[in-house]
Design goal:
Layout: E1 13-18, E2 31-37, E3 44-51, E4 59-67, E5 75-81, E6 88-95, E7 99-101, E8 110-116, E9 128-129, E10 142-148, E11 152-153, E12 156-164, E13 172-178, E14 186-187, E15 195-197, E16 206-212, E17 224-225, E18 229-230, E19 232-233, H1 235-247, E20 249-255, E21 261-267, E22 271-276, E23 281-285, E24 291-295, E25 302-307, E26 310-315, H2 319-332
Parallel strand pairs: 11-19
Antiparallel strand pairs: 1-2, 3-4, 4-7, 5-6, 5-8, 8-9, 10-12, 12-15, 13-14, 13-16, 16-17, 16-18, 20-21, 21-22, 22-23, 24-25, 25-26
């Protein structure tokens, strides 16, 4: 008769008693035998497997069935296999936990784990490798976070985002505006960069950025949207307007679409006049009802100024100068 030694038997002695018995039932003298203390077997491992989803960013788990006394600090090595030529390269050497987080470097390869069984007394057994995983697939491109700098009219807002999912290609960005956090947001024309000048057009509106991740191979992920913030008047615009009001007048140099220079004069007595470079007064008015200024949404330097029924299309040298001009005319003429 045989007895299979168990883990629980380690350190104990196994005693066997044999009582010879004749066919007619008569028993002979009992014989007792005792073994030496059971020593742990040589450490070994079987049935090593790797489980989990073979995709970039996923954690995979290795396991195996250990034999040979109490397990100590067994070691685990992870390898990358090129499925085309079968070449194996070491990824991680002798880690203490049988798990591994797949990275973009593993995409297109297979991964396997090698289990080195180690008994509590430090004795090492023969390494055993798992079967390889399926070929690791790339994680779809993803945007996990979008942060905005200060949103203020007359300044530039910047969107910073975190991208994952292999090499980034030409991800798409759109700036949006809405009347409140809960309203429907609409795209801002020609705003497709991580940096955008915040025009006074959007004063007191809520702005946010939406980023659609695009991988270098053209794969498109799900768009992500930042938190929305109200656009307040920026310090540069506010300081300039306060100085203009302190001076009680303002003069803005602009140009028409042919590059001809003009001056637009505003006075606190609610008077406005447009002067050509030849110093000839082209238009002036004291009647606020005869004045209308309209900002172009596509070109942040262009605007239309209508005085006494005649419209002029002008350009300011910079975006912020148009913002200052717009607020100044509205406040001087009592249009705001």
């Amino acid at each position: 008769h045989d007895y299979l030694l168990q883990f629980e038997d380690i350190g104990a002695k196994i005693q066997v008693e044999y009582i010879p018995t004749r066919k007619d039932g008569a028993e002979g003298e009992k014989i007792v035998a005792c073994s030496e203390s059971v020593a742990p077997g040589f450490p070994k491992v079987e049935f090593v497997t790797v489980n989990g989803t073979a995709k970039d960013g996923e954690k995979i788990f290795g396991k195996g069935e250990y034999f040979g006394g109490s397990e100590g600090a067994s070691e685990f090595l992870w390898y990358r296999i090129n499925p085309t030529d079968g070449v194996i390269s070491l990824i991680k050497r002798k880690v203490s936990q049988p798990n591994y987080v797949l990275t973009t470097a593993d995409v297109g390869f297979q991964v396997l784990m090698e289990y080195i069984p180690v008994r509590r007394d430090g004795t090492k057994g023969k390494p055993y490798k798992s079967d390889p995983t399926a070929t690791v697939l790339p994680d779809p491109p993803r945007i996990s976070q979008i942060d905005l700098s200060t949103v203020a009219c007359g300044s530039t807002v910047t969107a910073k985002y975190k991208y994952s999912g292999l090499k980034e290609g030409k991800s798409k960005i759109v700036w949006l505006h809405g009347s409140s956090k809960m309203s429907t947001f609409s795209p801002i024309p020609n705003a497709h960069s991580v940096r955008m000048h915040v025009s006074v057009l959007y004063l007191n509106e809520f702005l946010c950025a939406e980023v659609t991740p695009v991988r270098s191979d053209g794969m498109v992920g799900k768009p992500a949207r930042s938190q929305s913030f109200p656009a307040e008047l920026g310090d540069k615009v506010l300081t300039s307007v306060q100085k203009i009001f302190a001076d009680r007048f303002a003069c803005f140099t602009v140009a028409d679409d042919k590059g001809v220079a003009y001056e637009i004069w505003c006075h606190k007595k609610k008077k406005i006049k447009i002067v050509c470079k030849s110093k000839k007064i082209v238009r002036d008015s004291l009647d606020k009802n005869s004045i209308q200024i309209t900002l172009d949404t596509a070109n942040l330097k262009r605007f239309q100024l209508s005085v006494k029924g005649k419209s002029f299309t002008f350009f300011t040298p910079t975006e912020i100068q148009r913002d200052i001009l717009y607020i100044s005319i509205n406040l001087f003429m009592g249009l705001a």
